[in-house]
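Section 3.1 - Work completed
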Amino acid sequence: MLKLYSYFRSSASYRVRIGLHWKGLHFEYIPVHLTKDGGQQHKPEFLKVNPMGHVPALDHEGFLVAESVAILEYVDAMFPIKPLFLSHPKEKARVLQVCEVINSGIQPLQNLKVNQYLEKELHRSKEDVVRWNQHWIEKGLEGLEKIIQSSAGTYCFGGEFSAADCFLVPQCLTARRFGVMTEKFPIISRIEEACLKLDAVKKAHPEQQPDFAP
């Protein structure tokens, strides 16, 4: 009933996998390798699924929706068990704020296509690209730490797991991949540690995906 176009290392795909597993939803995993064959996301067959050439994308009985925020909101509306967005408009807005801090304020600056452009078109060294990523990830996490300071408990919003946590966990993993020490952010680190104990997060981890490659 559900098909997820995903890449094991994609943090945006990781978010959606967490959400689907949290809800206990079964889905077919369709791998789209972002670097093999020149990037399978650029192939005509995938561009019919998402003309932007991004993963993740979700196919629900022929209905296609892409982008992680849109996918999780759609899934939450269609399958309301174990909701990912808090019900009160103000609380839902705060969850979305955290999601967008990561989705709009951090992740696009560390995106594969941005890194490739910096190297290939602007002729920046790999070391320059790493510094670029470290700078923007650290700036984003500094802001996020302050934003969730008043709401954080076990998770970003008290004891309720939400979409905000779906976004936080992959961002922490990516941060470390670029050499950012997430231990500098104690609230974020505490929440990530709690999330990593959840079965949904364990199942969604990149190393547990069928297309995983070291």
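Second construct:
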Amino acid sequence: MNTKILESTVAQLLMRPKGLLAIDESNDSCNKRFAAVGVETTEEARREYRELLITAPDIEDFVSGYIMYDETIRQSTKVGKRFPDVLKEKGIMPGIKVDQGLELFNGSPVEQITKGLDGLADRLVEYRAQFGASFTKWRVALHIGEGMPSEACMRENAVRLAQYAKTVQEADMVPIIEPEVLLDGDHSLETCYAVTAKNLDIVFEEIQKAGVYLPGLILKTSMVLPGKSAGVQASIEQVATMTIKCLREHVPNGIGGIVFLSGGQDSEHSAKHLNAMHQLYPDLPWPLTFSYSRAIQGDTLNYWAKNRTDVETAQTFLVAWAEANSEASLGNYQG
């Protein structure tokens, strides 16, 4: 493990005022999004859309890294330039999602565990040597409901997150750990806070047990939010306050940085919540920025689906939301 490489990569990824763009949807997830807007669910359609995202002019002013999926990192533009090479020419770091999806946990009909440790070290060698990937991501999905998430599920996911992170660092790549608390359900803001806090405690207990190098680690987390079906929703300020309180009390100060997933929030709320955190709490112990997917891509996908030949306009929506979140990461968003 070369700690200088890890720290340098983290510093480049979290250099203000930039964030990350997640384009790492699995083929199934991407196909569902395409089907919902009337786009054919083919490999070529996925390649065409990803080329639009990767070649967007000036997005490098606001985005420091792209998280890709295995299919994506192997694809090329229509003229044959590999996607990772396009990104590197723009000064954007290529990253890769390395987990292999979710499976049911311990006989539960709902709770899930993330798989993908088998063969991980070999996959990392290929991603780094062949495609220049310098960072990775592993996602956990936690459901809030009756008896959920169970401590056993949180613990097993945390053990795997820690094993993943240690393996990635030994390959001189930066691991992003993503323990997402899902927005589905009618739970309160307070319940989400309690679940997020307990899970973060478990995650970092296992991270430290495994000997993961904290300055070379990035946490990708969900915000503290009431469930989307909850009768009482929260104000922008409440979400910002509860999220920062939870992170300050349950994330080690020595971590490389924190990025947020949008987790089903719309574009406007994702930006406003991040903005409020920086306005209310200007002195944080770690860099704090965005790693959004739909919150930045949503308008682009909807426009492109109906105007497939007008790539330029579709890209302006993408860059505009990337810029908005860049401003939010400074507390300067005026939306």
